[in-house]
Sequence to fold (677 residues):
Amino acid sequence: MWDYTPTVKEHFLNPRNVGEITDADAVGEVGSLACGDALKLFIKLDENKEKIVEAKFQTFGCASAIASSSALTEMVKGKTLDEALAITNKDIADFLGGLPEEKMHCSVMGQEALEVAIYRYRGMDIPEHDSEHDHGHAYPDHDGVIICKCFGITDSFLRKVIETNKLTTAEQVTHFTKAGGGCGGCIPKINELIAEINGSVVEEPRKRPEKLSNMKKMQLIQEVLEKDIRPLLWADGGDLELIDIDGSKVQVAFRKACAGCASSGNTARLVENKLRELVAEDVVVEEVAS
Amino acid sequence: MKEIYLDNNATTRVDDAVFEEMRPYFCELYGNPSSMHFFGGQVQQKVNEARDRVAGLLGASTDEIIFTACGTESDNAAIRSAIEVFPERRHIITSRTEHPAVLTQCRNLARKGYRVTEIGVDNAGRLDMDEYRRVIDDDTAVVSFMWANNETGVIFPVEEAAEIAKSRGAMFHTDAVQAVGKIPINLKRSVIDMLSLSGHKLHAPKGTGVLYLRRGTQFRPFMVGGHQEKSRRAGTENSAGIIALGKACELAGIHMERENSQVRSLRDRLQEELMRLIPHSRVNGDGAERLPNTTSIAFEFVEGEAILLLLSEFGICASSGSACTSGSLEPSHVLRAMGVPFTCAHGSIRFSLSRFTTEAEIDTVIREMPPIIEKLRQMSPFGRGEK
Fold:
């Protein structure tokens, strides 16, 4: 059973402001039946169109999705649109006395619906989503690219959630946004995003050099491991150590969380792909014990 | 609040008679059944009696019963043994709707180079026997199909599947954790090599299980380091648990008739009434042969966790195939394998009854469930089925 706070339970059992506003000034809809939760938020402004006087919601989802929606409608009342835009998903979770980490995506959904509603009201362009499996995340600054194909989640959205909530691991990102929770294929990309946001600057895409002397090759392998690969592993609490380079054969040992990790085979492939991309096509990575 | 317990596929109440049977074996008759003295010997006798009782329920011989610590251990031991017995065979067959105890084991073996085929099911959850016949070959080391599904109660034709496996020289294992005690099983009439069962699913305590191993079947033990269970499962016997499991099997045999008449009719009434009172609902596995105690019903446009928590307010205990209850993000692999649409999978609720379920309890569920679904649909943006 989930460890919900009394406030979450209260807002789930007696949700505030359920329903529609037929003459709403702003409506924001996110999510879909396919992905298991969806929220439609209705906002009514005062005569001067300055402050929110009424907010209602319709939610399909679990107890924490319903409680987050209820909390959101209470929080925005009396606020100007700019004040409402300043509400973060963390504020919603705090209002409820906290949410289990696995349920944080419910608070993110609330914050998202609010943003969509306000941006729509302000006439900003919001892309339409039509795919059945699309989570319907809509962002005006939506020049982002899809990172998680299973849930249709873009890098710009992930960037924002990672920054707001100071997330440091891919698992957290999954709990907050669902990204990475389907096939898991985008987890390396999520790790790259985290590493980038948390300070390890990823430079312009580099190309591997056309020709390399053995000496240069060894230097470049070491450089890529230090600058590109280890920071990714640190983000997941892991690490690696370079053991030896013999021509194109690179031997590494995994450390910390990576050591003995069931997916270290995948991590080895990740390292190999990165080295092939940036050093030479024929690099082979071998995991060695020690 | 008194619980209305309709989650018997998760675990069951220990029968009072079972508890009484095991009670003396903690503080009074605590001897080690392997000991030479009279004090251990009297425990040994009771363990043997339990073995007889388990064998009786399964239509097996006593030497074919190996006591373990749980169903999962039995599943693991069976599959590992089979692949060790046939090191030259590199193919494993299982189904897409297995319990994780089997599925995870098979997928781990796939990573070690085994070829693993997961046989699909149709919309009613029935095993695709044609696909199975097509893929089995002389490289197949072991076939493992569950007897009955934990989420939907759908029964697989394991006796027939076992004959196909034997014709290709493969080992056949069945995870019968949900079937034992609910439907009659007679292993004498089948060619099944190995069968796993779990005590706590049939009114014995948690931490007890059995691996049935057909006489003459080669076996490589999973737990080594002692002569217990004829060296097929080392470790001091959980004597109190084994004795309890024996009693539970005896009672299951006695109540088998009732399970298939009284429990079935309560289940049928619950299912029919909920379907009648709640529009946009459907039974998962409808049309397939199912366990008498289980029904999984999909309520469209609402989400399972919210339903369970509202039911819980009335003391009603059930479970869901929804993603949100488990913390994963996708609904149950069983419902997805059956092609249940996402719109239904998220709102699927499983009720699993037992011989302790009463008419009055079923009445309460039939009374409380429709307003709960109605309340959540009112709240849902898809509530009126527009989308």
